């Protein structure tokens, strides 16, 4: 974008009557609303002007995109496109002429600022068809005065296919994802995802029950799928969550029968045997992604890597609700601030930041692969000087993959080439830092990839490119002086024509001996040699002189001549600027060919830099935040000593609040039991239960992503599935109450968690009536223990559940400790063994500012409720668990007597005692007195 093309055709100039400078809309009609172009009727071309007829024809071929129609230095939009764009961009809606008796709505944006407007439209989810002039206006004139310059769509800009630096976040990947499904195999599907800005290309199979989780793991900007699949009712719940990112396409793009041919043609190979084995759904997804890239990029070929297959189960499964609850990439409000990635990101390059986010979103399940990553972090932690040197060098490494993609798609410029040159140089320097050192496997592989980078290309770019580079190649001036002799000559003529002419003048004076000889210029003769009339013989006296000096004009006192050299020099000077730019563009194209030929090596080297950035940043994080290396293995252990919440801990520090209180967690198998434990966590609101729940899940994610963790020590047997149900939310758009959402998410956990899963549950059953909720929570705990047999932390306010610890051998009661002080409660945020007997809700309500009258009334109601006949019911229910036919039953004891008036003297006597002021003898005497007051 942003390239000024040929001059507009004459008809467009004549019809262009309005002011096209975008200005704020004085009465905006909203912010763009739904970001899909409405299915409006395309106007009829009958009776339209030639230019408008052309617009309607091109718009009809791109009905789902806003058409940026190039007219001179502006992109114009008409009809419904103009109305949509004016609202979305906040620019003035004008009109031009009439069509079918009505005004034609119009708005426009300048070409040089098009990226800014594209950024806003793409951010709102719109797709844009960029229509350029593809013909020289002079050619159009030859066809007749009414002929219009030919235009065509040169590119479709969609959320998943952008490459412009302005439109991308350097720290986030920009994935286009394709969903492949083959008729007759609906239970098997596949996802292929491409980051066209870097060339990354991956594919994996999926299943209907995990489709949404797999999509959200990648977090694509755009999801394409065949139109029949898009309208499949069974996929509607998934697509409702994906929303406007889902983009239906013609089924032919996903045809598995022709997929191999399409893929082979794109990568220029005769067969896919060298790519590995792909299933039919995978081939369908890969072909769909490639077809869409070809459709949107038109004549340009994106430099994609060969599709890399991800094995099933290689990444930790995290369902959609868990990702949202744990706020891995963004908080529930959509902000990156406050997310896990933001808290642990210490990378210094865009590529490193993207890789870190990918690792956080897709932790590994292979202990050996996890420990390879941890070995890299340990190396940098043990070598602080190397770590600091690598991080310093990385700061000067530009984003090579994105620069490479822009260049290959003919959207790049000299600065992108400069970025590659700087990146290659930085890679060479960084590789040299590891010389003569034993290296862990991951770092050794990265260093090898950096050493394999094309050194000759880097040196060539250094020689060819100037120190200061323009943004656009059309501006020229990007080739270093001395690199190309012809270019230097053209520049000299262009920039120093007076000096060149003066030099020729000196040479002629020496040759002829005429000291008064001058080289002059006028608009009639151009450059000419002038001598006084008395030097006529010198200039024409011999045949050689006549042949050399060509007479042009005789004046009263002077004669004017030219030479072949002067005429040639004049032509060169006149064309020097154009020729200089032409030579530079030729150099650019030659360098581009060399760059594209080394695309695979450049991407591999850039990937290696990203790996070093992530590993060194994790080491830097561990040093600054006091993280430890976790022990990750294939066991079912889950033991955290002094664990901390990585996000909350940093937030408390920024707020200069009290330091974070670390807590232990141990869900490892106990004794001879081979399954993990379940902790039943009770305690007051605001006591820190939710923080404790989340921190253990985040520690597991960090460990399996290959990071050190916020703890004194950690032993984590690989978790294959992570489930978190924390907090309350509704889904009113789909007719789901808060409690319904809670039950749906709980159902997913109970139906999918296995023995290697880690389950984090908070407040199950609190969204309904007390006994309904208690019964659901009770049954869920039993099911987790007996059927799922997973490692879990179950937080609850149903204190009746604590009796289960005596009946379920792997269930343990723990509580958030508090202290009461002068009628108030102090939250210690410490987890300890035992069970809470109450939730301190009234104290929390007072802290929240409820009126005193409400608090006092609540106390009275609570006293009445607690005096009810409910004691013993939970114990009796636990003794009658259906899952334990051999449960030991307690012997019935005497029923507690009701307090009556006879006991009142005893109560008053106890209340009157002051133990701290009594001597041992006084205490003994008081005890005898109390014994005498005991009711018989």
TrEMBL record:
<dbReference type="GO" id="GO:0006298">
    <property type="term" value="P:mismatch repair"/>
</dbReference>
<keyword id="KW-0238">DNA-binding</keyword>
<dbReference type="InterPro" id="IPR036678">
    <property type="entry name" value="MutS_con_dom_sf"/>
</dbReference>
<dbReference type="InterPro" id="IPR045076">
    <property type="entry name" value="MutS"/>
</dbReference>
<keyword id="KW-0234">DNA repair</keyword>
<dbReference type="Pfam" id="PF01624">
    <property type="entry name" value="MutS_I"/>
</dbReference>
<feature type="binding site">
    <location>
        <begin position="683"/>
        <end position="690"/>
    </location>
    <ligand>
        <name>ATP</name>
    </ligand>
</feature>
<dbReference type="InterPro" id="IPR007695">
    <property type="entry name" value="DNA_mismatch_repair_MutS-lik_N"/>
</dbReference>
<dbReference type="Pfam" id="PF05192">
    <property type="entry name" value="MutS_III"/>
</dbReference>
<dbReference type="InterPro" id="IPR036187">
    <property type="entry name" value="DNA_mismatch_repair_MutS_sf"/>
</dbReference>
<protein>
    <recommendedName>
        <fullName>DNA mismatch repair protein MutS</fullName>
    </recommendedName>
</protein>
<dbReference type="Pfam" id="PF05190">
    <property type="entry name" value="MutS_IV"/>
</dbReference>
<comment type="similarity">
    <text>Belongs to the DNA mismatch repair MutS family.</text>
</comment>
<keyword id="KW-0067">ATP-binding</keyword>
<dbReference type="Pfam" id="PF00488">
    <property type="entry name" value="MutS_V"/>
</dbReference>
<dbReference type="InterPro" id="IPR007696">
    <property type="entry name" value="DNA_mismatch_repair_MutS_core"/>
</dbReference>
<dbReference type="GO" id="GO:0140664">
    <property type="term" value="F:ATP-dependent DNA damage sensor activity"/>
</dbReference>
<dbReference type="InterPro" id="IPR000432">
    <property type="entry name" value="DNA_mismatch_repair_MutS_C"/>
</dbReference>
<keyword id="KW-0227">DNA damage</keyword>
<feature type="domain" description="DNA mismatch repair proteins mutS family">
    <location>
        <begin position="757"/>
        <end position="773"/>
    </location>
</feature>
<dbReference type="GO" id="GO:0005829">
    <property type="term" value="C:cytosol"/>
</dbReference>
<dbReference type="GO" id="GO:0005524">
    <property type="term" value="F:ATP binding"/>
</dbReference>
<dbReference type="GO" id="GO:0003684">
    <property type="term" value="F:damaged DNA binding"/>
</dbReference>
<comment type="function">
    <text>This protein is involved in the repair of mismatches in DNA. It is possible that it carries out the mismatch recognition step. This protein has a weak ATPase activity.</text>
</comment>
<dbReference type="InterPro" id="IPR016151">
    <property type="entry name" value="DNA_mismatch_repair_MutS_N"/>
</dbReference>
<dbReference type="InterPro" id="IPR007861">
    <property type="entry name" value="DNA_mismatch_repair_MutS_clamp"/>
</dbReference>
<dbReference type="InterPro" id="IPR017261">
    <property type="entry name" value="DNA_mismatch_repair_MutS/MSH"/>
</dbReference>
<dbReference type="InterPro" id="IPR027417">
    <property type="entry name" value="P-loop_NTPase"/>
</dbReference>
<dbReference type="Pfam" id="PF05188">
    <property type="entry name" value="MutS_II"/>
</dbReference>
<keyword id="KW-0547">Nucleotide-binding</keyword>
<dbReference type="InterPro" id="IPR005748">
    <property type="entry name" value="DNA_mismatch_repair_MutS"/>
</dbReference>
<dbReference type="GO" id="GO:0030983">
    <property type="term" value="F:mismatched DNA binding"/>
</dbReference>
<dbReference type="InterPro" id="IPR007860">
    <property type="entry name" value="DNA_mmatch_repair_MutS_con_dom"/>
</dbReference>
